[in-house]
């Protein structure tokens, strides 16, 4: 006996007007709502969160919110460090102590890969400048990015240089040293 097309597309739909009896068939949840840590979440907490979550649009329908604008100085530095680690030292070559990141992997794509990783590195320098890094520190960071980008363009040898030079980690170290010398506000 052939199965009708309706059963193939929606196999759990009841054939008559009766309500389905499955465990998730009702409109409201049955039982407690549990988060990823195993703690119960009260439904009114969820409703409050949904009311507070909204997008704000400015003139002409443009998005007015800045998702990165409300970060503290330490949160920005932590984000810069995390991206630099991902780019330069995220992985270990099995059987050795050699660390590499996605900078070395993306750099294997000729020209385009090096342009992408250099653009990300330049964004890190821009973030350092936004944190108040002085011109001489920014210039040194840009020099590291330039050396990494230019030498990285050489096939294979440039990728090996990316793994050894680690321009992003150098830049984070420079920024961290400068920030440690600054007075806390």
Q: What is the CA–CA distance across the termini?
A: 78 Å
How many strands?
4
- What is the tally of helical segments? 8
Biggest β-sheet strands, sense, barrel: 2 strands, antiparallel
Architecture overview:
The protein is mainly α and 185 residues long. It has eight helices and four strands; from the N terminus they run αββααββααααα. It has helices at residues 5-9, 43-52, 73-88, 102-106, 112-130, 135-152, 157-165, 167-181; strands spanning 33-34, 40-41, 91-92, 99-100. The strands form two sheets. It has a two-stranded antiparallel ribbon. Strands 3-4 form a two-stranded antiparallel ribbon. The protein is extended, with a radius of gyration of 26 Å. It starts with a helix and ends with a helix. The mean pLDDT is 79.
What is this structure's SSE topology?
Elements: H1 5-9, E1 33-34, E2 40-41, H2 43-52, H3 73-88, E3 91-92, E4 99-100, H4 102-106, H5 112-130, H6 135-152, H7 157-165, H8 167-181
Antiparallel strand pairs: 1-2, 3-4
Concise description?
The protein has helices spanning 5-9, 43-52, 73-88, 102-106, 112-130, 135-152, 157-165, 167-181; strands at 33-34, 40-41, 91-92, 99-100.
What would the keywords be for this entry?
185 residues; mainly alpha; two-stranded antiparallel ribbon; 52% helix; 4% strand; extended
